[in-house]
Structures are given as structure tokens and as C-alpha cells.
């Protein structure tokens, strides 16, 4: 059989999580919280089930939830969106990205991707018949060289994918970045696919620059969001897409045949839960405390933290400790020291190895304290 993805194996997240289980290691590799959800939200889901909301939801999402999403977008980004024609509820951010690329990318279309990048981007582009054009961010700040971006654009360039706050680095867009993105997208008539699943998880008084808050850019842009990231419920796999009506129409054509509709009782619960802004506006402060706590627990370690302004991941450099490749180092930490991380080279198409490991700090203090004890000894 001729594989469509001959170079793709099991995702690194599954590999490292399996290794963590096999070696009884603390798992700071896969990005999922180990603390409980708000009981109010859990009770709302249970209530929805008990009230009989257990059959198919409408394909674009429950109208009540889409209305609330539209209001949240208005309140957050001062962007008026039509709940009926510009908001689509998806089975998580990954399915949203896949549906968008399947709907909009034609054979031979080029899609610009910034590495290190979430590992679903490249396969999803290739499965759609597109050609991923990878540009490396400038370590250690993980900034974008916009002149390099413009030099890569040609008649085949269709989409530019961005991710802020950024996974795995924790970097965030500056005002100059969003201005340059807008200039380039409008000049070359590009669609911007903006992965903003960590929109609420941003620190140190930094601002999240969304494509939605700049009217001209928003007309050419698709923004992807995640309830799972926002409400500590990654296993629910539920998110949403905000896009102009013409793009939404095409995205839904693919969405309906990939997943059709999304978990009904959870949509019912979120429609109620999202009406209270306090349920999501305090997330940045919450995770900044988590980041600061993690950094305090590893203080004194020979591993050096890089700046992290968003997401719930912290990069640590082991350059002063070992010359090993990052995959070998991640395996050593998991097997010998009983702590699992993600080697950052897997997020690069060219496998750039900057001697960096990614650790998830969306964990209980007890978990992070145990991890800190291990890391301080390395």
C-alpha cells in the first residue's frame, strides 16, 4: 500500500505519555491539566444529559452556544460576528484546523507554517493536497522574520498559519507582528489561519493580539479556539471557529462530513457557563501563578528556563548539561529520572535541535513540586 503520510508515525505526545506510564514517571509531556474542572460546569453537563440533550446537535453547533460565543468575541475583541454565518462549533481545535485546510486548500497550494509548530499542521496540509512551506522562528525569542516570510510568498501561496500564544515556546505576538501579518496578508491576498487556542493563557501583562480585532485583517482571517484549553477539559475535544461568512460556508462543507456535529450536552452546558465572564477572564492570572510556581520549584537546577509569556508550557535548555540530542535526553529523563517531557526538535520539519525540552505546568502544585525535586538534581 502506498501511504499518504509515509514519514508519519505515532504522535510524540502518545509516545512520551506511554513511556511515562511504562516507567512510572511524572508526565509533564502531554499538555493536559491534572486538576479537576469547575464543579459548576460538570454539573451543567450532567443536568443537560438528564434533561435529555443527548441527540445530534445542529451541524454548525447549538444556536444558544454560537450566540454566546458571538457575544464573547464582541466583548473580548470588539468584533461583531454573526452567530449564524460566522461561528462554527468543532470537535476541538485540531479538527477545526483539519476541516479548514480540507475545505480551502487545493492541490499544489502552498501554506506557510512557522516551526516549531504543533504537529498536526504539516500532515493536515499534505492530506489536503497542499504544500507546507516551513519557516523557522528565531530562537531563543521564537520571533518571526517578516522579511523572510515575504520572500517565501509566490503565486501559489494560499494560507499563512500563525499560532499565538505559541506552542511549544510560550512566545506571543507583539503589536508589530500583527501589523506585519496584516500588511502581508492584504498585500498578497492571503488567508490567515490563526490558532488562538491559548488566547486566555497569557502572562506578565502581555496582550493577546487576535486577528479578529483588526477589521481589515479579520476579513481575510479564520480564528480557531478551544474550550478544552480554556476550561481544563482537553478530553472533551470541543472548540470553535470564527471566520467571515464566505469562508465559514466552505469550512462547514468539510466539517459536516468529518464530524458532522459536536457533543450536545457539553454544548448545552457551555452555553450557560460562558455567560459568566469570570469563568474565563481569570485564566491568565491562574496560569501565571502555575508558571511562577513551576519556576520556583526548579530554581537551582542546571536546566535553564526560556521566557514564557503564554500557553501552559515552559521550555528548559539543557545545553549546559549534556551534548545529547533532545530525543535522547527526553528518553533519559523519563527512564532514569522518572520525569517525562517533549523534545522540541519534533516540532521542526528540519529537526532543528536547540537542546530544549518542553514541560507542561498545567499541573497540581504537588505534581510540580515532585518534578522540581527531580529537575534540581539533574
From TrEMBL:
GO terms for molecular function: kynurenine-oxoglutarate transaminase activity; pyridoxal phosphate binding. It comes from the Bacteria. It comes from Chryseotalea sanaruensis. GO terms for cellular component: cytoplasm. NCBIfam families: PRK09082.1. The lineage of its organism: Bacteria, Pseudomonadati, Bacteroidota, Cytophagia, Cytophagales. Residues 25-371 form the Aminotransferase class I/classII large domain. Its cofactor is pyridoxal 5'-phosphate. Pfam families: Aminotran_1_2. Transmembrane segments: none annotated. This is Aminotransferase class V-fold PLP-dependent enzyme. Keywords: Aminotransferase, Pyridoxal phosphate, Transferase. InterPro entries: Aminotransferase_I/II_large, Kynurenine-oxoglutarate_AT, PyrdxlP-dep_Trfase, PyrdxlP-dep_Trfase_major, PyrdxlP-dep_Trfase_small. CDD domains: AAT_like (cd00609). Belongs to the class-I pyridoxal-phosphate-dependent aminotransferase family.
Amino acid at each position: 500500500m502506498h501511504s499518504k503520510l509515509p514519514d508519519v508515525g505515532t504522535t510524540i505526545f502518545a509516545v512520551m505519555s506511554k513511556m511515562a506510564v511504562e516507567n512510572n514517571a511524572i508526565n509533564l509531556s502531554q499538555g493536559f491539566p491534572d486538576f479537576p474542572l469547575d464543579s459548576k460546569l460538570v454539573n451543567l453537563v450532567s443536568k443537560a444529559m438528564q434533561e435529555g440533550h443527548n441527540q445530534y446537535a445542529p451541524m454548525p453547533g447549538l444556536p444558544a452556544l454560537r450566540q454566546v460565543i458571538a457575544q464573547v468575541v464582541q466583548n473580548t475583541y470588539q468584533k461583531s460576528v454573526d452567530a449564524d454565518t460566522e461561528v462554527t462549533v468543532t470537535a476541538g481545535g485540531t479538527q477545526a484546523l483539519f476541516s479548514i485546510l480540507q475545505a480551502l486548500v487545493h492541490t499544489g497550494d502552498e501554506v506557510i507554517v512557522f516551526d516549531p509548530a504543533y504537529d498536526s499542521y504539516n500532515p493536515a496540509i499534505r492530506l489536503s493536497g497542499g504544500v507546507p512551506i516551513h519557516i523557522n522562528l528565531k530562537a531563543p525569542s521564537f520571533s518571526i522574520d517578516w522579511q523572510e516570510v515575504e520572500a517565501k510568498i509566490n503565486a501559489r501561496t494560499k494560507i499563512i498559519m500563525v499560532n499565538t500564544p505559541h506552542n511549544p515556546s510560550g512566545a506571543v505576538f507583539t503589536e508589530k507582528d500583527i501589523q506585519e501579518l496584516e500588511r502581508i496578508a492584504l498585500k498578497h491576498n492571503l488567508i490567515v489561519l490563526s490558532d488562538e487556542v491559548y488566547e486566555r493563557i497569557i502572562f506578565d501583562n502581555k496582550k493577546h493580539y487576535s486577528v479578529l480585532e483588526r477589521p481589515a485583517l479579520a476579513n481575510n482571517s479564520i480564528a480557531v479556539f478551544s474550550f478544552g484549553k480554556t476550561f481544563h477539559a482537553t478530553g472533551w475535544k470541543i472548540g470553535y471557529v470564527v471566520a467571515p461568512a464566505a469562508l465559514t460556508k466552505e469550512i462547514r462543507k468539510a466539517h459536516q462530513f468529518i464530524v458532522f456535529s459536536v457533543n450536545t450536552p457539553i454544548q448545552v452546558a457551555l452555553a450557560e457557563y460562558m455567560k459568566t465572564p469570570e469563568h474565563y477572564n481569570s485564566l491568565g492570572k491562574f496560569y501565571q501563578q502555575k508558571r511562577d510556581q513551576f519556576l520556583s520549584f526548579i530554581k537551582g537546577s542546571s536546566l535553564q528556563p526560556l521566557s514564557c509569556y503564554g500557553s501552559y508550557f515552559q521550555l528548559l535548555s539543557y545545553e549546559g548539561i549534556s551534548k545529547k540530542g533532545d530525543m535522547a535526553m527526553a528518553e533519559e529523563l523519563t527512564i532514569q529520572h522518572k520525569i517525562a517531557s517533549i523534545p522540541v526538535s519534533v516540532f521542526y520539519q528540519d529537526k532543528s535541535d536547540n537542546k530544549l525540552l518542553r514541560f507542561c505546568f498545567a499541573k497540581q502544585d504537588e505534581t510540580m513540586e515532585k518534578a522540581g525535586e527531580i529537575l534540581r538534581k539533574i
